[in-house]
Write a structure and sequence with these properties.
The protein has 252 residues and is an alpha/beta fold. The protein is built from seven helices and ten strands. Helix 5 packs across helix 6 and helix 6 packs across helix 7.
C-alpha cells in the first residue's frame, strides 16, 4: 500500500541551509541541542517519509507551497489534529521540499525520557506556551535570526473535535514580537491540517493547506491579541479547506 501524494503547487529550488547557533542552557534546566543530528536526521526522514506515511495514508494532499519563502526565517502555525501532524509538516515543507529542517517547539512533557532524547537530536526544543520562559524564547529568536524554520502549534494541544473553535495561546505572537524587536521580521504562515477521521486510520486521506504569510507589524499587547485572533481565523479557514480535501471521493 502506497500513498499518492498530490502537490497542488509548484516547488521551488531548495536554498542553502544556514548556520545554527551553539548549544545553550534553557531556564527549565535542560540543555537545548540547537542542531539536527547528521545521522539521526536522515534516518528519521527515511523512517517517517518513506515508510510510516506511505504505509498509513492512501493519499496526502498539499496546497499552498507557493507561500513557502526561498530564504529567511519562517514561523509555521498549524492546527493540531493528531500526532501525525509532526510527520506531515516536514512532508509538506521540510528538507526534501525546501532544503530546510522544520524545527519544532514542543511542550515540556514531550521532552521527557527516551522520546525527549530523540526529539532533542532532531532539533526540537521545549517551550511552555502558557508561560514561556525567557530563555526558551531567546533560543527561538536566535534560531529565527539564523534563518531557521520553526513550527509552533498555537493551540498547545491536540483538538480532535472539528466543531470546537480554535483557541490560541499568546506564545507565538510574543515570539514574533521579540524577534521583531531584534530586527528579525518573521512571516507567520498559518497551516490547516485535516484527516479523513478524527483519529487517523489506515488508508485515510490527509491534507495540509498552507496560507499566505502574516506579519505582526506594530508591537504592543493590543496588537498581539488582535494578531492572535487574525491567525486563528486564518488557521480555521485553512483547516476547513483541508477538511474538504479529505472528504469521501475527494481527489478520486
Amino acid at each position: 500500500m502506497t500513498a499518492e501524494t498530490a502537490d497542488l503547487t509548484d516547488q521551488h529550488p531548495a536554498p542553502v541551509p544556514t548556520a545554527r547557533p551553539p548549544l545553550i542552557q534553557a531556564a527549565e534546566g535542560r540543555s537545548i541541542n540547537s542542531g539536527v543530528s547528521p545521522w539521526l536526521g536522515p534516518l528519521a526522514m527515511v523512517t517517517t517519509q518513506d515508510l510510516a506515511l506511505p504505509l498509513w495514508f492512501r493519499a496526502i494532499v498539499v496546497e499552498g507551497r507557493q507561500w513557502l519563502p526561498e530564504q529567511g526565517p519562517v514561523l509555521l502555525a498549524p492546527t493540531h489534529k493528531a500526532r501525525w501532524d509532526a510527520l506531515l509538516l516536514p512532508h509538506a515543507a521540510g528538507r526534501r521540499v525546501t532544503g530546510r529542517d522544520c524545527r519544532f517547539m514542543v511542550t515540556l512533557d514531550e521532552m521527557r525520557g527516551l522520546q525527549g532524547w530523540l526529539l532533542r537530536r532532531l532539533g526540537c526544543f521545549a517551550v511552555n506556551q502558557a508561560r514561556p520562559s525567557l530563555a526558551s524564547l531567546r533560543h527561538a529568536v536566535d534560531l529565527l535570526a539564523g534563518g531557521e524554520w520553526l513550527v509552533l502549534f498555537p493551540e498547545g494541544r491536540i483538538r480532535r473535535d472539528g466543531q470546537e473553535p480554535l483557541r490560541l495561546q499568546q506564545g507565538l505572537a510574543r515570539l514574533a514580537g521579540l524577534a521583531a524587536g531584534r530586527g528579525v521580521e518573521v512571516p507567520v504562515l498559518p497551516v490547516g491540517i485535516a484527516y479523513s477521521h478524527p483519529v487517523p486510520r489506515p488508508c485515510d486521506r490527509a491534507a495540509v493547506c498552507i496560507g499566505a504569510p502574516m506579519r505582526l507589524g506594530a508591537a504592543g499587547r493590543e496588537r498581539a491579541v488582535a494578531f492572535t485572533a487574525e491567525l486563528a481565523a486564518a488557521m480555521a479557514a485553512l483547516e476547513a479547506r483541508a477538511s474538504s480535501l479529505v472528504l469521501p471521493g475527494a481527489g478520486d
